[in-house]
Amino acid sequence: MDHNVRLVLLVVLLFVYLFICAGMFHALEPWVDAWWLKDGNKTDAAREFFRNYTENRNATAPFPIVPRSYFESFFYMVSVITTIGYGHIVPVTTFAKVFTAVCANFGIPLVIYILAIFGSKVSDLVLAGEDHFLRGVPGPYGRRTVTVMLVELFGLFFILMIPGAIFAQLEDWSFGDGMWYAFVSVTTIGFGDLVSGQRYAGVETDPNLPAFNFYILCKFCYILVGMTWVATLWYLIADVLPPVRPEGQQVQKEEDPEPEQVPSGTLLANQA
To answer: Is the Cβ–Cβ distance between 88 and 65 less than 8 Å?
Structure first.
C-alpha cells in the first residue's frame, strides 16, 4: 500500500475512533440529566450534581467541566489520546473511568504512530531544503543548527503567535494568554489554567451551536498540526545526536554462527 494512502487511512481511522469514543463517553456520564434542567441556573445545577455525586461537599471551584454536548465529549477524548489532559472535563462514574483508560490504551499509540509518520515526512522536506539552500553554511552541525532555528521560528510565528491571536480574539483573552494556551496544547503540557471553548459566544445558552462544534474540530486539527511541528523538531535534532545505544552493543546476545554448509557430495568424495 502506498505510504500516503496509508497515512490518510490512519487519520480517518483516528477521527472515527474519536467520534465513537466520544459518543460512548457522553452516554456513560450522567451529566445530561443534571445539565438540562429547565428551571434554575444550569451551571449551579451541574456543580451541585457534581458535589452530590462525588460526595465532595468542599467542591467549591468553578465547574465549567461538564460535557454539555457531544462535541465537548469529543474534545475530552482529544485531550486524552493526545495526553494533553487539560482537566476541564473528568470522568466521574467508574464505567467512564474504565472506558477512558481503554480508549487511551489504544488511542495514544495510534496518535504517536501518526505523528511519527507526519514528523518523518515533514523532516524529509526540511532536510531537502537544507541541502539546497544551506550549502554555504560550514559543517553539518552548523547547517543543522540553522535549520532547527528556522523551523523553531516558523513554529513560533505560524503555530504559536497566529493561533494565539485567534484564540485571544475568540476567547476574550490577552494575546499572551492565547499564545500560552497554544504552547501548552501543542507541547501536550496541558496545565488546564486556560481551556478554550468555555466562554465561546452563545455556548452557555446552546452548547450544540454548529459554529462551536466546528470550532472544536478546528482545534483538534490545529493540535495535530502543532504536534507535528514538535515531532519534526525531534527528528531534526535526533538525526545529529549520537545513538542512545553505544556502537556495537546489541539488545540480544549474538547467536553462534551457523556451521558452514558443505556442498553436496564433497564429504563422501573426501572419505573415498
So the answer is: yes
pLDDT of residue 50: 54
- Please give the model's pTM, rounded to 2 decimal places: 0.78
**What's the DSSP call for residue 82?**
T
CA 4, 222, 67: angle at the middle one, nearest 5?
115
Among the listed residues 107, 105, 103, the one whose alpha carbon sits nearest the alpha carbon of residue 95: 103
- Is residue 27 a contact partner of residue 75, using CB atoms and an 8 Å limit? no
Measured CA to CA, the distance from residue 67 to residue 9 in angstroms comes to 29
Compute the CA torsion angle 123, 128, 130, 135 (nearest 10 deg): 160
The number of angstroms, rounded, from the C-alpha of 129 to the middle of its chain's C-alpha atoms is: 27
CA angle 106, 109, 112 (to 5 degrees): 145
d(CA 221, CA 216): 9
Distance CA 231, CA 235 (A): 6
